[in-house]
Specification:
Blueprint lengths: L48 H93 L6 H14 L2 E5 L9 H19 L8 E4 L11 E4 L3 H9 L10 E4 L3 H19 L5 E6 L2 E6 L6
Antiparallel strand pairs: 1-3, 1-4, 2-3, 5-6
């Protein structure tokens, strides 16, 4: 930076802005060259330039400090936001975990409720079975008055009836003589049985049960040589159910009484809340069983 020269004691009469360039040895120069000397104005600078520089430096320094402070605050704020974001994610994960645990507990509660309902049902069924067993035990404990001959007679009668089948629903028209009646019934029976079993043989004999009534159709007892043939006819009797024809096994009076008692017991157990109970023959013995346990 250029400054104006200070004045000396001998030049006190001269100003700094317009120095006398012709003083000293220049006064001896030819006056003809005096017009060549140029006069320049010296630029004035304020005396407080240094203080301005200092102030600018201080301002710059303060700005730098502020920028550094802002930078530190930004870093701290970012770290804080990252921490808050991490905490929020942790809370979300914990909420998700709690929801999962709650869902699992709800499912377990539903399962437990279902198992308790099933247990109550089984308890009711077991109570009914216990009552039935108590009834049967009571029957067994009752001394029988049937002689051995009656028991053997019952067994023989069941054996003979096992080769018979009772067919209901066959037209019971009246004929001039017995032979025509038997021939008509035999023809209709063959038509029915061959529809069930195509190779079914002709029966040994047939017989109408009960007295003739023009308003009713008496059942027909049909006898064969083989009880296995009778079982097969009974197993496949649904083949003629559309014709309103029904087939039954030939039971003794005691068997009918046993079936009657089973029906009474079945009704009692159903009224006590048991479900899906049916009467089925298991090894030729009628029993009350659950329908879902019955294998077709």
């Amino acid at each position: 930076m250029l400054r104006s020269p200070t004045r000396s004691d001998r030049d006190k009469s001269l100003t700094g802005s317009h120095p006398n360039l012709t003083s000293g040895s220049d006064l001896n120069q030819d006056s003809s060259t005096s017009h060549r000397v140029a006069t320049r104005n010296k630029r004035k600078y304020p005396n407080d330039d240094t203080s301005v520089k200092d102030e600018l430096f201080d301002i710059k320094k303060q700005l730098s400090a502020m920028m550094e402070m802002l930078s530190v605050q930004n870093v701290n704020q970012k770290e804080f936001m990252d921490k808050v974001s991490g905490d929020i994610n942790d809370i979300k994960n914990e909420i998700t975990l709690i929801k999962g645990i709650s869902q699992t507990l709800t499912e377990k509660c539903h399962l437990l409720s279902s198992e308790m309902t099933s247990l109550k049902t089984k308890t009711s069924e077991n109570e009914a079975k216990i009552e039935s067993l108590e009834v049967n035990i009571g029957k067994l404990s009752t001394p029988t008055n049937l002689p051995l001959e009656s028991i053997l007679g019952e067994l023989n009668e069941r054996q003979e009836r096992s080769r018979n089948v009772i067919i209901c629903g066959i037209s019971d028209a009246q004929y001039e003589n017995k032979e025509e009646k038997i021939a008509a019934d035999t023809k209709e029976i063959l038509r029915i049985t061959k529809k069930i079993i195509p190779q079914c043989p002709e029966p040994n004999y047939i017989m109408r049960l009960g007295k003739f009534n023009p308003e009713k159709r008496r059942p027909v007892k049909v006898s064969y040589d083989s009880k296995d043939l009778v079982k097969e006819l009974l197993r496949n009797k649904n083949a003629v159910s559309s014709e309103q024809i029904k087939l039954f096994s030939d039971k003794t009076p005691k068997q009918k009484e046993q079936i009657k008692e089973l029906k009474i017991e079945l009704e009692r157990r159903i009224n006590n809340g048991e479900k899906d109970l049916i009467i089925k023959y298991v090894k030729d013995v009628p029993r009350i069983i659950h329908a879902k346990n019955y294998l077709h």
